[in-house]
Specification:
Elements lengths: L2 E6 L4 H11 L4 E8 L7 H4 L11 E2 L10 E4 L6 H6 L6 E4 L9 H7 L9 E3 L6 H6 L3 E4 L2 H15 L3 E12 L14 H4 L4 E2 L8 H8 L4 E7 L6 E9 L6 H8 L6 E3 L17 E7 L6 E7 L3 H15 L16
Parallel strand pairs: 1-2, 1-4, 2-3, 4-5, 5-7, 6-7, 8-10, 12-13
Antiparallel strand pairs: 8-11, 9-10, 11-14, 13-14
Helix pairs in contact: 1-10, 6-8
């Protein structure tokens, strides 16, 4: 028997990707998966890509998950804390929701509302000191999808003093799966195809998380809904703090030993299709010849490095496995 794993919220897009990754993991045994409205349905009916997976979705309650050694929570924001509180302390938990990411209760209240559930170890292994912290933790708060793409592009530059943390601008386009699986008019194919549309402009909930993770002081963030199922392309710009610094070299040095972060060769720019199905982040950086601003472009699969893949990476560290176990660094094409 391997490590017994349960997935709560298994009917959603991130939950389905978790089922796929856990079922193919060499050291994990998928023993339980839960849902709300889809409880009682076979996982292969809810997720046709998982044909052959012999598992019925149970109700989302602690008893359905208590026999697992490790539980992933892929629930809507605000629903993880109550379920996690009902699980035995011996069960390791990775929360894909936002409930436990923020240290600042006032920021939680401002962007999410309701009571702040407290702060867990932040689940981004590539940040300095986070690998050992995650490995020692029994509760880990997985990063937000936009936060991963932006933080990996920005954090090393702020830490090295290469850019000013007080003037950061991010424009990031995401595929529709980032909005969840619930039926919504603005996500219908007829509404999305051939269209780009900004949303939550000036008030996106990932802003305080990105500032917390990167050290940015002021952040202007504009998310854009793109007509594709998966992927995030983030363009991050900032004012240089020192003259003549090479932002690409700083990123390359910071991620020299990071298996999932790839600083692309000079002149090669990230695009989302290249990260599809992987747990990788592709980065490229330059300095704008006109404005002088540092520009970093970042690409990820929002359901991979932005959600389920990142969660498995953290879980691997928590149970003492190499962080790459069961995950691919390579994308799927075409």
């Amino acid at each position: 028997m391997g490590i017994r794993v349960g997935v709560a919220g298994a009917s959603g897009y991130a939950g389905g990707e978790l089922l796929r990754l856990v079922a193919g993991h060499p050291e994990f045994d998928l023993v339980a998966a839960t849902a709300h409205r889809q409880a009682g349905q076979p996982a292969s009916v809810v997720h046709p890509q998982l044909a052959g997976l012999d598992l019925v979705l149970g109700p989302t309650e602690p008893d359905a998950l208590a026999d697992a050694d490790l539980v992933f929570l892929a629930l809507p924001h605000g629903e993880s804390a109550a379920l996690a509180a009902g699980l035995p302390e011996t069960v390791r938990v990775v929360d894909l929701g936002a409930d436990h990411r923020l240290r600042d209760a006032a920021a939680w209240q401002r962007y999410y509302g309701g009571a702040h559930a407290g702060t867990w170890t932040y689940g981004l292994p590539e940040l300095p000191g986070q690998r050992p912290a995650i490995a020692a933790a029994s509760r880990v708060a997985n990063t937000g999808c936009y936060a991963v793409a932006t933080t990996l592009a920005l954090a090393p530059l702020v830490a090295a003093g290469v850019v000013e943390p007080a003037d950061v601008v991010v424009v990031a386009a995401s595929g529709t799966s980032g909005a969840g699986r619930a039926a919504k008019t603005h996500l219908l194919g007829s509404e999305v195809m051939g269209d780009l549309s900004p949303y939550k402009v000036g008030a996106h909930q990932h802003v305080p998380e990105i500032k917390q993770a990167t050290g940015a002081v002021s952040l202007s963030f504009t998310p854009v809904l793109a007509p594709m199922p998966r992927g995030i392309l983030a363009t991050v710009t900032a004012v240089p703090a020192v003259a003549g610094a090479d932002p690409r070299a700083v990123l390359a040095e910071a991620y020299a030993d990071a298996p999932f972060v790839h600083v692309l060769p000079e002149g090669t720019w990230p695009h989302t299709a290249a990260t599809l199905g992987s747990n990788s982040c592709h980065l490229q950086a330059t300095v704008d010849v006109d404005s002088g601003r540092v520009i970093v472009v970042s690409a990820i699969d929002n359901l991979g490095k932005g959600a389920a893949g990142q969660a498995v990476q953290c879980a691997n560290l928590m149970v003492g496995l190499p962080e790459q176990t069961g995950l691919s660094v390579f994308g799927v094409a075409p």
